[in-house]
Design a protein that fits this description.
The protein has 948 residues and is mainly alpha-helical. The protein contains 48 helices and two strands. β1 and β2 (571-573) form a beta hairpin. α7 packs parallel to α9 (178-192) and α43 runs parallel beside α45 (904-917). The chain is globular and about 100 Å long.
Length: 948
């Protein structure tokens, strides 16, 4: 069910507006906790607006909208933009409907007593986005004069009143693009031709048109100036990199910060301090920002991402992670950055001063801070401590962290919050102080093997709410991992692994402050080095090893680390044995060691005369061997049962051992085997199905195992089951299996309205990648935080197809303005990729760019000029950013390696040769000429000019 369906059902059932908004809040809390606030508000607004097509002028629908706005679930500004956009549809062109919707906006605005900015228009709304809204308002007024008049609904009056209010918000049009200015000028001029236009509307429209005409007075000169600015790009100081609006534009930084969060467990994530700092240093060099500007951009961008992730009804998991990053991790990264940035010719003291100078202005962004503070604490709660936790403001927590890591002085803090030392005391630090311990010591004591699971859960919830303690928590966990693996301390390592497996928030805290790949590598080394014969109690020891294995499996799956190369020092470790468990179960594929183990374990588990699992067999079997043979044990026993050589009771008894803590950690491979067998046999596998159902629906099956198997389970048993599969299933009901998988994935309980459905056969994966790019461009145009998950796009389509799709959309957007598309292209091409993933910059330069150049040859002269302009922008910007990244990797990390796949100078040299060979075409010739005419570019890439 969607919000649209919920609203339609509620309206058609006669449910009141108050009850409807309650249902919406419940639906949002259960199904849309990961969605952004703006997205949810838009969905609510559109769910009502779409009903006006079938029920024009219905006062009950108007009541729904009023209730949503009064309850705060829908902001007036969001409703206004969605309403004006929807009003462009012919389906809503009804006088009563449009007048009612106008009155909703106007009545709520006047009742609020607020100025127009803050009521109809959000604080900090970019002028470009405001003008889009005004353009829609002008279209509405134009439409009003074409519709039949009504004595009950004065649409022309309402629409004119709304347009006058919006135009009063326009204070400066000097920064908008020429194309947008021209579009608004033409619309305003068209409205002024209407004889019946009210005097008030005519007056403000004339003023508006006049200000735009001044901007457009010499469009040709303006265009030439813009192109001259474009070709002076890239390599000097000030605004030549990011354009004239770079100091207030958050596109670049929000793309980068979202990338850090998307890839927080990978190399170059926030937990990988030196590499994350190298990215920041490269950004500084590429942007040529002054220190104060750099700090403002980074911190305000993080605050914007945090504010934007907050849901309409409270914190979401995304906002919890953003708060943990912004307060708990970002100050530490900035402290490391200050030390690395000294190589830019600016002393650390000067960086220190710049931050202290810019911080007061940053923390006076009330539009962001009020949004962040409006929902209280981050997600997660525990009944035992809920009432004792008093929410703290974002400013207090952030200032405390900046002071704690040494980024600002007490005197600066006092100018922002004079009472901070008296009013703010981090919760967990206060508890540690009461126990006469520092934070690491406090976590060490509370995470002891003697602690109960309930005590650990309460501790984690309290820690999760207190970002100021996350670094200390991560320090303790990392220390526990390294010392436990070195000393083969199975009990302590098991405790930490169970904690991280059971509580996502613990792993989220850890991923922001530590390299998750290093912890996985230590865990793999522990499993590899585990000596079965030297432990005192093998039953307990094997159970503890199982906890470590489950942690490794779950973490690799959650953070998509399957292709990562794990190392401890010079030692290479592989997790391949986990991935392949269950893929091969034929006994002729096993080694002698495995065959011997299969024989011993079959007798211990499935022999009616067996006395169970003895210590000797546990000592004789390495955990990796047990993982390999577990699917074969099931295969053998099930086949014996099918052939009636084994009683079903014996099979059930043997399986019961795998549902205890001693062996349940081996079940991921077993379930993988069972699912493949069910499909291979065309679902005509009753014994396999019953065993699968027993395992997945048992409360003793580890949640990590069910989660690992959930996606494959739902693919194997879709809803509805195809007819040919249903015949094979017979009377077997797969619903309990599906329900277990859905629950593991956090999906709602299965019913007729929430059943998972397969996409249309006409749906293409690359269309999803295209939509992600469009969403990012839309966010950039509207002044919101921009996110583009490149890794997800590359899962949806191959690299060349993704880059072709990306540049089609970017070139289209660049016809209006080029800065945001250029920044997005530079981000995609020059952000370091995860290990073993395709390097996008060389693929673009040597495979995709030639086709873009060739296609541009067939464009008109004006279109070709625009295309050349944009491609020169992208090439120069991306190569320069890549050069700065190479330099930052060397100076910050001491690593001389090509993180973008190839040497930047070699890519530039090859590009020059490619363009020279294509010199007969006008586009290649123009690009080559303009790049070689840019002296800073040639200075950075002398091999490019030499090749020409």
């Amino acid at each position: 069910m969607s919000l649209s369906e919920l609203t339609r059902n509620a309206f058609q059932s006669g449910i009141t507006a108050r009850k409807w908004i309650g249902l919406c809040k419940l639906f949002i809390s259960k199904n849309l906790t990961h969605s952004g606030a703006h997205s949810v508000e838009t969905d609510i607004s559109n769910s009502v607006l779409v009903l006006f097509r079938d029920y024009p002028g219905d006062p009950a629908l108007q009541a729904y909208l009023k209730q949503a706005i009064e309850d705060g679930v829908l902001s007036l500004a969001t409703f206004l933009t969605t309403f004006l956009a929807a009003a462009q549809s012919p389906d809503l062109r009804n006088t009563a409907t449009l007048d009612m919707l106008c009155r909703v906006v106007l009545d709520h605005h006047y009742a609020s007593g607020m100025p127009t900015v803050g009521s109809l228009v959000s604080y900090g709304e970019p002028t470009s986005r405001l003008l889009n809204t005004i353009q829609n308002a002008m279209a509405l007024l134009r439409t009003a004069y074409t519709l039949p008049e009504s004595h009950l609904h004065q649409l022309t009056t309402s629409a004119a009143e709304l347009l006058i209010l919006l135009l009063s918000c326009v204070t400066d049009v000097s920064q908008i693009s020429t194309a947008q200015a021209m579009a608004n000028f033409l619309d305003a001029t068209a409205l002024l031709q209407i004889p019946r236009l009210t005097a008030g509307a005519r007056h403000v429209l004339e003023s508006f048109a006049f200000s735009l005409s001044l901007l457009l007075e010499d469009a040709k000169v303006a265009r030439e100036a813009q192109m001259m600015h474009t070709f002076q790009l890239a390599f000097g100081k000030g605004d030549t990199i990011l354009g004239s609006s770079s100091e207030t534009d958050i596109v670049t930084c929000t793309l980068l910060l979202n990338h850090l969060i998307f890839n927080r467990a990978s190399e170059f994530g926030p937990g990988d301090g030196p590499h994350a700092v190298a990215i920041l240093v490269a950004l500084l060099r590429w942007s040529s920002w002054a220190p104060a500007t750099f700090y403002s951009q980074i911190i305000i961008s993080a605050m914007t991402c945090l504010a934007q992730s907050v849901g309409p009804t409270g914190p979401t998991r995304a906002s919890s992670i953003w708060k943990a990053f912004t307060i708990g991790r970002l100050p530490h990264l900035l402290a490391m950055f200050q030390k690395s940035a000294q190589s830019e010719g600016i002393a650390e003291a000067d960086w220190h001063t710049a931050l202290q100078f810019s911080l007061p202005a940053i923390l006076h962004r009330t539009d962001l801070i009020e949004r962040i503070d409006s929902v209280g604490q981050t997600g997660g709660s525990d009944a035992a401590s809920e009432k004792s936790v008093i929410p703290h403001s974002f400013t207090s927590e952030f200032l405390y962290q900046m002071l704690h890591v040494g980024l600002v002085e007490q005197a600066v803090v006092a100018t922002i919050n004079p009472n901070l030392s008296n009013d703010f005391h981090p919760r967990v630090a206060s508890e540690a102080q009461e126990a006469n311990l520092d934070l690491p010591g406090y976590f060490e004591a509370r995470l002891s093997p003697d602690a109960s699971p309930e005590d650990i859960e309460v501790l984690l919830y309290r820690a999760w709410r207190d970002p100021c303690c996350h670094a200390a928590f991560a320090e303790v966990v990392v220390k526990r991992f390294t010392s436990s693996t070195k000393n083969v301390d199975t009990e302590n390592l098991s405790l930490v692994c169970k904690m991280l497996c059971k509580h996502e928030m613990a792993l989220d805290m850890l991923s922001l402050h530590a390299k998750i790949t290093d912890l996985v590598a230590h865990a793999l080394a522990f499993v590899e080095d585990y000596d079965c014969e030297t432990v005192g109690d093998p039953q307990t020891a094997v159970t503890h090893v199982g906890d470590v294995v489950l942690f490794v499996e779950a973490t690799i799956a959650r953070f998509n680390l399957a292709s990562h190369a794990f190392t401890v020092g010079d030692r290479q470790l592989s997790a391949e044995f986990l991935r392949t468990a269950g893929l091969g179960h034929r006994q002729d594929a096993f080694k002698d060691e495995d065959l011997s183990a299969i024989s011993s374990w079959t007798k211990a588990l499935f022999d009616p005369g067996s006395e169970g699992i003895e210590d000797t067999i546990l000592r004789a079997t390495h955990p990796k061997v047990l993982l390999r043979i577990a699917p074969a044990l099931f295969s053998h026993a099930i086949n014996q049962c099918i052939e009636q050589k084994m009683d079903k009771e014996v099979l059930t008894n043997g399986i019961s051992y795998f549902l205890g803590p001693l062996l349940n950690w081996t079940l991921a491979g077993v379930i993988r085997f069972l699912l493949s067998e069910v499909q291979r046999r065309g679902y005509k596998a009753p014994v396999h199905l019953e065993v699968l159902k027993t395992l997945l629906t048992s409360p003793s099956c580890p949640p990590a195992v069910v989660s690992l198997s959930a996606a494959a389970t739902l693919r194997t048993f879709p809803d509805p089951i195809p007819q040919y599969s249903q015949r094979g299933l017979g009377t077997f009901d797969p619903k309990p299996i599906r329900q277990a998988a859905r629950q593991a994935l956090g999906l709602p309980a299965e019913d007729s309205q929430t059943a998972l459905t397969m996409g249309s056969s006409n749906t293409h994966w690359h269309d999803q990648a295209r939509q992600l790019v469009k969403n990012a461009l839309g966010a950039a145009r509207s002044g919101r935080a921009v996110a583009l998950d490149t890794d997800r796009c590359l899962l949806l389509c191959p690299p060349t197809q993704f880059l072709t799709t990306l540049f089609y959309e970017l070139c289209l957007a660049a016809t209006m303005e080029m800065e945001a598309p250029r920044r997005m292209a530079t981000f995609v091409l020059t952000t370091p990729r995860p290990p073993r993933s395709p390097p996008l910059l060389p693929i673009f330069l040597h495979l995709v760019l030639p086709s873009l150049v060739a296609s541009a040859d067939g464009l008109t002269a004006a279109e070709q000029t625009l295309r050349v302009e944009f491609l020169v922008l992208v090439i120069s910007s991306a190569l320069t950013a890549a050069l700065h990244l190479e330099w930052a990797m060397l100076r910050t990390c001491g690593e001389e390696r090509y993180v973008l796949g190839q040497s930047v100078t070699s890519m530039a040299r090859r590009l020059a040769g490619d363009l020279k060979r294509r010199g007969d075409g006008p586009t290649a010739s123009m690009i080559l000429q303009r790049l070689t005419a840019m002296q800073p570019f040639v200075a950075n890439f002398p091999t490019f000019a030499a090749e020409v």
